[in-house]
Amino acid sequence: MSGPLYTTSTGAPVLEPYAVQKLGFTGPLLLQDFHHIDLIAHFDRERIPERVVHAKGAGAHGYFEVTHDISDLSCAGLFKKVGTQTPATVRFSTVGGESGSADTARDPRGFAIKLKTEEGNLDWVFNNTPIFLLRDPSKFPHFIHTQKRNPHTHLKDADMFWDYLSLNPESIHQVMILFSDRGTPDGFHHMHGYSGHTFKFVQSDGNYTYVQIHLRKEGGFKTLDNATATKLAGENPDYGLQTMHEDIDNGKFPTWTAYVQTMTPQQAEAFRYNILDLTKVWPHAEFPLRPFGKLVLNKNPENYFAEIEQAAFSPSHTVTGIEPSTDPVLQSRLFSYPDTHRHRLGVNYGQLPVNRPIAPVANFQRDGFMAFENQGSRPNYQSSLEPLAYKEKPYNIQQHEIWVGGANTDLSFISELDFEQPRALWQKVFDDTQKAHFVSNVAGHLGSVKSDKVKARQLSVFASVDQDLSDRIANAISHASVQPLKVAAAADAIKFRNRATLA
Ligand code: HEM
């Protein structure tokens, strides 16, 4: 037989893969049988914790290319020259399901990108929707728990699901998207990606611009209707993984155009919505999309576990010229991801090949489990004998925190402002078919809620968007019509923000 020689994990050849050492013909096994123990003990430890959210995914490699000059916005090295290509690893995911769950579940989708720039890794940890269900990070574990399993029954639970959403009406914008056909994308590689959060692009003089990043799929965002998504969930739960893998293998490389929306701090203060409120979009007419790059996926992983499962993305992995805003959800995420990587992959997760930067790493971190590269003989302290070099301070970022501080004061304050964008979706964006699908998708789920209190409260949230929308759902689940929620006026929410001008 040809092929590599079969060995133990220490490289010692083994004659027979199925052999076990026994005492006599039918006797017990021997402790001295290193080959067998090596095999079983490693198998026993194959599983690592799955991601607490976004456990089911699919990924591939490719590159990001700068197509338009945006050096007026950011001094990040990767944007310096049109035509520069940066190696990329991308992982798509559903959010709530376990790692074996169906790819076509009604759920937001993750769209995580690792760009290995010459100035360090830049991760864009995006979703497929431009907004999110909450603007207060302390609600995230509560929200996620209600989308996962009931601690008593271990079943998915529609009462928990809608109880949370109806108690936290700032979720309605995302609910409008989630229960449209956009909530069931056709696979992973036919959808757009959005930063959702506001970030800062910083120029070399320290001036900055608030930005939102959009990745728009060439060929458009394809969706499934509820019946098809449900059928596929049973027939081929790995539909998204499979179709993307096959397309890439067949040379049909998924490609996205990257755009940036920009807003100056002065514009941010005059904007109707809080730019740090993750439940709001920036209207394209007011803040047009400016193209700057393209993302292409052209290579499937050789080994899924090593290259995708072990990939560790974090919004805190950033480079000079791109900074987080003070959006509280983003701020919380900056901590959460590396924290989860240390738990899921270990303290040296950054040394795994998929995460290792192409930029050289030199610092004072040493040891810990799996320290493959321990920085050799270099001193492990701030040494005068062999000092590290330090980069010149690239800029003094101007702070906009006075206004920002006030803007975040009460994240649970619900006002008319929270219903304007969902109402525009229902009244101006959805056509008749999309409206019918939306009503039927919600009715199919909300109809199975046992508590009338929860049903009525969620119908009130829909009535605050549009009375006709709520009545159509009520009718579909045989419920009486309900009144909108009583909420503060939009003007109160706007007044609420501290509008101190920039110094
Ligand atoms: C995955 C936390 C909101 C996008 C994760 C993971 C955690 C987490 C712990 C698992 C990471 C891992 O094990 O590798 C949070 C918290 C949030 C939040 C605390 C809010 C307070 C968001 C938002 C977005 C997002 C708003 C998008 C705009 C993602 C993506 C992944 C992910 C794409 C999967 C990354 C991968 O493929 O490895 N999140 N998340 N998350 N999150 Fe979030």
TrEMBL record:
GO molecular function: catalase activity; heme binding; metal ion binding
Active site (record annotation): 54, 127
A matching Pfam family: Catalase
Assigned protein family: Belongs to the catalase family.
Single GO BP term: response to hydrogen peroxide
Protein name: Catalase
PROSITE patterns given in the database record: CATALASE_1, CATALASE_2, CATALASE_3
Classification lineage: Eukaryota, Fungi, Dikarya, Basidiomycota, Agaricomycotina
Ranges where the Catalase core domain occurs: 7-389
Reaction(s) the record says it catalyses: 2 H2O2 = O2 + 2 H2O
Binding residue positions for heme: 337
Cofactor: heme
The EC number(s) this enzyme carries: 1.11.1.6
Gene Ontology cellular component terms for the protein in this record: mitochondrion; peroxisome
Known role: Catalyzes the degradation of hydrogen peroxide (H(2)O(2)) generated by peroxisomal oxidases to water and oxygen, thereby protecting cells from the toxic effects of hydrogen peroxide.
Entry keyword set: Heme, Hydrogen peroxide, Iron, Metal-binding, Oxidoreductase, Peroxidase
